[in-house]
Automatic annotation (TrEMBL):
Keyword Hydrolase in record: yes
Nucleotide-binding in keyword set: no
Annotated keywords: Hydrolase, Signal
Protein name (database record): SMP-30/Gluconolactonase/LRE-like region domain-containing protein
N-terminal signal peptide: 1-19
Stretches assigned to coiled coil: none
Lineage: Eukaryota, Fungi, Fungi incertae sedis, Zoopagomycota, Entomophthoromycotina
InterPro entries (UniProt xref): 6-blade_b-propeller_TolB-like, SGL, SMP-30/CGR1_Lactonase
Domain SMP-30/Gluconolactonase/LRE-like region stretches: 128-301
Residue intervals passing through the bilayer: none
Classification via Pfam families: SGL
Amino acid sequence: MSFKLSCFSALLILGGASAILQYQAKPLITAKNSKFGPFIEGTSVDKEGKVYAVNYGNNSTLPTLGYVTPKQSLFYEDTQTPGTAFNGIRFGIKEAHHDYKVAYAADYINHRVVKVKVDSRGKVTGKTHCSNPKFIQPNDITLARNGRIYLSGMRFQKDTQVGDGDIWLCTKEGKSRRLDVLGRTNGIELSPNDQYLYVSEAVDRNSTTVSNKIWRYRVHSVTGSISHKTLFFDFATVNTAHLNIDGIRSDVKGNLFVVRHGGQEVLKISPKGKILASIKVSFTYPTNIELAGKHGTTLHIVGRCGIDTPDGQGVGCVDTWENDAPGRAWSLLQ
Ligand SMILES: *[C@@H]1O[C@H](CO)[C@@H](O)[C@H](O)[C@H]1NC(C)=O
Ligand SMILES: *[C@@H]1O[C@H](CO)[C@@H](O)[C@H](O)[C@H]1NC(C)=O
Ligand SMILES: *[C@@H]1O[C@H](CO)[C@@H](O)[C@H](O)[C@H]1NC(C)=O
């Protein structure tokens, strides 16, 4: 089924007791004016609500982070470390007694998280914050209020095994500790009060994706460890187990926005695991999302442009959609 609706209209689809609101996101950056490559990912927001993503440039400029808003431009490029390929970004809370702004970026080739600093004169520098050759990637990251970073990673195999995905913790001091192993893990996000950690898991059988789930863990506030793993959402229940979960972001109400890579859609899911809304995107392969803008309420959805563009081809697109509450990441920085 496809829905073509204006961004201000919504249609109620009544199925039993559940009602899923249907929306269409609005194009912000299109194939015509994009300065991003097709590996655009890691949507992130800073204190001012500006939006960032990786792969500013073309399909061979992977060590770059770019501004999506207010105006497309280069934010940071690692010219020192061979092979650097950024995927996830998060902005950090300003450190006490320092006048600089901080971002963390996941480099999935060099198995590290880079700390990017912007000093008071606007000079941007990067330095490895946390690294471990045992990290599978990392793919995406989420940042706790106390400065701890949670990382996910994945390895594609014909037949996924436990251990093709991992969850790691990087402490504020840059020490790493493995928390769990699963099938392929990708989207990772904390709840607004850092009480829960959500992580996606996908499983392939004979090179076909057969399962996509979101798990929820309880986070121990003192040690940062995770426990009480429970199934939060299984996409088999909505017949899309074959579509990969990509980025996950929370709003301040604890609703999750979940990217359906290949599904041309972002789903909004309540903290109780109920699908509240389907946000259709103008491109088939969204990768990541973030709530940003002046009030932290504008969902920015990034991914490679087009409907059937092959992997690595074309350029990066961005759509937007207006939420009724600000994002967790934005509000943490205020
Ligand atoms: C990609 O961009 C870089 C940096 O601007 C440039 O050197 C390179 O030639 C470009 N590559 C392609 C394939 O367009
Ligand atoms: C795996 O997929 C290949 C290609 O589609 C097919 O030929 C083969 O029979 C499959 N093997 C199993 C065990 O299902
Ligand atoms: C980048 O794009 C060019 C031109 O479309 C293509 O030939 C090349 O395979 C792409 N590179 C990657 C890494 O996907």
